[in-house]
Amino acid sequence: ETGVTQTPRHLVMGMTNKKSLKCEQHLGHNAMYWYKQSAKKPLELMFVYSLEERVENNSVPSRFSPECPNSSHLFLHLHTLQPEDSALYLCASSQGPGRRNEQFFGPGTRLTVL
Amino acid sequence: GENVEQHPSTLSVQEGDSAVIKCTYSDSASNYFPWYKQELGKRPQLIIDIRSNVGEKKDQRIAVTLNKTAKHFSLHITETQPEDSAVYFCAVKRGSQGNLIFGKGTKLSVKP
Question: Does the beta-carbon distance from A43 to B99 stay under 8 Å?
Answer without folding.
Answer: no
